[in-house]
């Protein structure tokens, strides 16, 4: 590999030049090995945030991050593979019903998930509220479960895109998370290294998401779809609403329960709608567009796949879920129609109740969270429950209540039709 030095690469991006392939390969490799210092990589990340990267730079940057670690290969599985990635939102439990549903349709789902940070929840934190369930699997265990059950949701091993692990932690503390080239390459390096055949991206838009407006969300989606397509992964993106939280719960055990309700044929209509929309995209990408996932929800086979998936990872799908020790009900201050429920306000409340973490090493409470008893468009009655707050530590209620203040509107006599969940589709 050609030798460069960190200052040369930083100066090039600072002065708005295109980085060469050789500069990119070198800087990612040298950073992973510890030869480029954190302060140098921080300066480069900031220069990228300010000056951007073109498509060929982003593509090379992603390839270099993939090359920093191992690549998984599921091509010898007896079924095609498809995966989904969400950019993160409030009440976003969709992976939980989606993975077993798609497995029940004959497509394997190798889902490597993360933990929550800040106001958005993490899939692994949610699943860990199921007694006995474990997130860490070896590559061999993952392969066996995929062959036997068809779906696995587990933590990414240390070997996958280690450059991204290091760089993401650095971006988190240097104000450089929000650069579209860095977000796109971070997400796609892990998904391409994971070896899925098809990929559906759920790019969230709105107050509870990374991307607050449709224009930036579309730019991120287009960048990621291009990266996936260039790497030979059939990739599409749905832009979906995250101004309102999904479903009726945000937390860990409460979101598992809501997912089980969906698998049992019930659950909130928006969760069912988005689960089916993403399942149809995954099946189409894997060449199984002829299967209707709604049938597999209705006939119980998605629920069977869920139970098998949980058991295969040590969990007891029939065990009672943990419950918070304390609860606090917020009642509606007036009667009318709920016309706004702000995803960020709900996400912050759930986080402050103990469902999420402020630092990577913090524990989360399995039972903590928020349940909302109405969704935008529903009639509410003064004095009736609007929210139930759940936590093991009642001293957390005040701060959670403060984050809900101003987070909803009730309008008397308003005609209100909630907007669509799927706002746009990119690729395919
Ligand atoms: N998720 C990731 O994995 N990386 C980012 O940069 C942002 C969200």
TrEMBL record:
One of its GO terms (molecular function) is thymidine phosphorylase activity. InterPro entries: Glycosyl_Trfase_fam3, Glycosyl_Trfase_fam3_N_dom, Glycosyl_Trfase_fam3_N_dom_sf, Nuc_phospho_transferase, PYNP-like_C_sf, PYNP_C, Pyrmidine_PPas_bac/euk, Pyrmidine_PPase_CS. Keywords: Glycosyltransferase, Transferase. It comes from Nocardioides hwasunensis. Its EC number is 2.4.2.4. PROSITE patterns: THYMID_PHOSPHORYLASE (PS00647). Homodimer. This is Thymidine phosphorylase. NCBIfam families: PRK05820.1, Y_phosphoryl. Residues 337-411 form the Pyrimidine nucleoside phosphorylase C-terminal domain. Gene3D superfamilies: Nucleoside phosphorylase/phosphoribosyltransferase catalytic domain, Pyrimidine nucleoside phosphorylase-like, C-terminal domain, Transferase, Pyrimidine Nucleoside Phosphorylase, Chain C. Pfam families: Glycos_trans_3N (PF02885), Glycos_transf_3 (PF00591), PYNP_C (PF07831).
């Amino acid at each position: 590999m050609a030798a460069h030095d960190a200052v040369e690469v930083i100066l090039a991006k600072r002065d708005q030049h295109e980085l060469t392939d050789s500069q990119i390969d070198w800087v990612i490799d040298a950073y992973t090995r510890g030869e480029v210092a954190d302060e140098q990589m921080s300066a480069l990340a900031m220069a990228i945030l300010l000056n951007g990267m073109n498509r060929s730079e982003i593509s090379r940057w992603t390839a270099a991050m993939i090359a920093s670690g191992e690549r998984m290969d599921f091509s010898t599985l007896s079924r095609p593979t498809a995966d989904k990635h969400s950019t993160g939102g409030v009440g976003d439990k969709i992976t939980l019903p989606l993975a077993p549903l798609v497995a029940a349709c004959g497509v394997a789902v190798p889902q490597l998930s993360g933990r929550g940070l800040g106001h958005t929840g993490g899939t692994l934190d949610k699943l860990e509220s199921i007694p006995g369930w474990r997130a860490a699997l070896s590559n061999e265990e993952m392969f066996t479960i995929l062959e036997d059950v068809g779906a696995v949701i587990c933590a990414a091993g240390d070997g996958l895109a280690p450059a991204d692990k290091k760089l993401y932690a650095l971006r988190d503390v240097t104000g450089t998370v929000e650069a579209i080239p860095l977000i796109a390459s971070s997400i796609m390096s892990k998904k391409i290294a994971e070896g899925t055949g098809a990929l559906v991206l759920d790019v969230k838009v709105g107050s509870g998401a990374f991307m607050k407006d449709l224009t930036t969300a579309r730019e991120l989606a287009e960048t990621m779809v291009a990266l996936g397509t260039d790497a030979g992964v059939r990739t599409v993106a749905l832009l979906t609403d995250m101004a309102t939280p999904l479903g009726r719960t945000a937390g860990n055990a409460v979101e598992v329960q809501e997912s089980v309700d969906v698998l049992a044929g019930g659950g909130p209509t928006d969760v069912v709608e988005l689960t089916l929309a993403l399942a149809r995209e995954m099946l189409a990408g894997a060449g199984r567009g002829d299967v209707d996932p709604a049938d597999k929800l209705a006939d119980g086979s998605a629920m069977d796949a869920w139970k098998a998936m949980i058991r295969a990872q040590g969990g007891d799908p029939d065990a009672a879920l943990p419950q918070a020790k304390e609860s606090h009900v917020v009642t509606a201050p007036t009667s009318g129609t709920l016309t706004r429920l702000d995803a960020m306000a709900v996400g912050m409340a759930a986080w402050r109740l103990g469902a999420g973490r402020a630092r990577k090493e913090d524990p989360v409470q399995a039972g903590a969270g928020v349940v909302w008893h109405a969704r935008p468009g529903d009639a509410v009655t003064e004095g009736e429950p609007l929210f139930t707050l759940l936590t093991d530590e009642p001293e957390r209620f005040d701060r959670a209540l403060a984050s809900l203040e101003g987070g909803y509107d009730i309008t008397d006599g308003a005609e209100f039709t909630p907007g669509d969940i799927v706002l746009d589709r990119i690729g395919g």
